[in-house]
């Protein structure tokens, strides 16, 4: 099981998204900032580290928004999405700290554009349901992810 943590950062009608490039996808995929847990790392530490690496923003993980799980064949994924507590002076200027990483862009995306921007259903559907207040158990499960990600060799 691959354990992931993602951050839901919200400001006035917008959500922070990142675009990441993977070897098996011709175009970058937009998703919430986050990534794989490193050995010995708590999920809140993962999301805080990943948010900073992928957007340059330092923020604390707040409450757990929802948990989602999916399968790509036999490979399972468990993703914890946390609400992010942003500094009051957060601006529009967000960008990946390290261009050698697979993250190619970061942007504040208006709520009405999320469904179009996020093409991966196992990311899009729980997020939209949560934002609409329709994710009653704060859980979403998918027997088939519908997408395969080839992770960069250097990411843990």
Describe the structure.
The chain is α+β, with helices and mostly antiparallel strands. It has one domain: Nucleoside Triphosphate Pyrophosphohydrolase (Alpha-Beta Complex). The chain has three helices and nine strands, in the order E-E-E-E-E-H-E-E-E-H-H-E. The chain has helices at residues 43-55, 114-117, 121-131; strands at residues 2-8, 10-11, 14-20, 29-31, 34-36, 60-72, 75-85, 103-110, 139-142. A five-stranded mixed sheet has the order 5-1-7-6-9, with helices on both faces. Strands 2, 3, 4 and 8 form a four-stranded antiparallel sheet that branches. Strand 3 (14-20) and strand 4 form a beta hairpin. The longest helix has 13 residues, at 43-55. The mean pLDDT is 89.
Order of helices and strands: EEEEEHEEEHHE
- State the shape: globular
Question: Domains counted in the coordinates: how many?
Answer: 1
Give the low-pLDDT segments: none
Work out the number of β strands: 9
Largest sheet: 5 strands, mixed
Percent of residues in β-strands = 35-45%
Task: Note the total helix count.
Answer: 3
In round numbers, the mean pLDDT is: 89
Q: Determine the structural class based on helices, strands and strand pairing.
A: alpha+beta
- Beginning-to-end CA distance, first to last residue: 13 Å
Which second-level CATH architecture applies?
Answer: Alpha-Beta Complex
* CATH topology group: Nucleoside Triphosphate Pyrophosphohydrolase
CATH top level class name: Alpha Beta
